[in-house]
TrEMBL record:
GO terms for biological process: cobalamin biosynthetic process. It catalyses: alpha-ribazole 5'-phosphate + adenosylcob(III)inamide-GDP = adenosylcob(III)alamin 5'-phosphate + GMP + H(+); alpha-ribazole + adenosylcob(III)inamide-GDP = adenosylcob(III)alamin + GMP + H(+). It comes from Clostridium pasteurianum DSM 525 = ATCC 6013. The lineage of its organism: Bacteria, Bacillati, Bacillota, Clostridia, Eubacteriales. Pfam families: CobS (PF02654). The keyword Cytoplasm does not apply. Belongs to the CobS family. The chain crosses the membrane at residues 32-53, 60-78, 106-125, 132-154, 174-207. HAMAP family: CobS. Keywords: Cell membrane, Cobalamin biosynthesis, Magnesium, Membrane, Transferase, Transmembrane, Transmembrane helix. It is found in: Cell membrane. This is Adenosylcobinamide-GDP ribazoletransferase. Its cofactor is Mg(2+).
């Protein structure tokens, strides 16, 4: 399982983890069990940046935290959000939407989605107290990655052989249960009821987003996982702002 954790960290982040692990499906399929932990690592780095820059002012702190999220992840999920919005808002056939989502070039809706994604996170973090922003960053990033594990467990691939499919296995639900349990235990310790409400809101949103994806393309893809991660983070941050500001 240590190999799965390392491979998950290498896949979901750009952190310099210089440990060689074979890129095998049987190992990749286990990585969702660690998605919540990896999310906490990502959020923890952003929280440290936020805290250090907060000695200057909250504008710098919020901007630095959002920028650090992009740097640490390499904009992986943000790219998925861009591709998903380009495809979903194209009003084309299922086949054409999937083609658009595979196109590496960002269209108008993709660019707009990235701008609003960054803007929403910046405004939400800027509006929080330092005491609220730090746990909110850690837990929202963990919630976002846990929602990826949930869609992997309960979703159907819209594109056979796609990147998202390599994380699926007969044990996907077990790995989701593991990462969810880890998230709940740590989340309740850190933030109690605010975390539970944020998690519940993210789950409801993710199920609705998955249903919408089924309507558009008949399933989910790697881009949809990324888009849902970004949007679930915003949902969670919004809840934390309302309950912890």
């Amino acid at each position: 399982m240590l190999k799965a954790f390392i491979l998950g960290l290498q896949f979901l982040t750009r952190l310099p983890v210089n440990i060689q692990v074979d890129f095998q499906k049987k190992i990749l399929a286990k990585t969702p069990a660690f998605f919540s932990i990896i999310g906490m690592i990502i959020g923890g780095i952003a929280a440290i940046v936020y805290y250090l820059l907060s000695f200057f002012n909250k504008d710098f702190a919020a901007a630095g935290a959002v920028l650090s999220l992009i740097i640490v992840t390499g904009g992986l999920h943000m790219d998925g959000l861009s591709d998903t919005c380009d495809g979903f808002f194209s009003s084309r056939s299922r086949e054409r939407v999937l083609e658009i989502m595979k196109d590496s070039r960002a269209g108008s809706f993709g660019v707009i989605s990235i701008v609003f994604d960054i803007l929403f996170k910046y405004v939400l973090l800027k509006s929080m107290t330092i005491e609220a922003a730090i746990p909110a960053l850690i837990l929202s990033c963990a919630i976002g990655r846990t929602m990826i594990a949930m869609l992997l467990s309960f979703g159907k691939s819209a594109r056979p052989g796609g990147m998202g499919e390599i994380f699926m296995s007969k044990n996907s639900k077990l790995y989701f249960a593991v990462t969810l349990l880890i998230l709940i235990i740590i989340g309740v310790i850190i933030s109690k009821y605010a975390f539970l409400i944020a998690l519940f809101a993210a789950i409801i949103f993710s199920l609705m987003f998955m249903k919408y994806s089924y309507k558009i393309i008949g399933g989910v893809t790697g881009d949809v996982y990324g888009a849902n991660c970004e949007l679930s983070e915003i949902v969670a941050l919004t809840v934390f702002l309302v309950l912890m500001r």
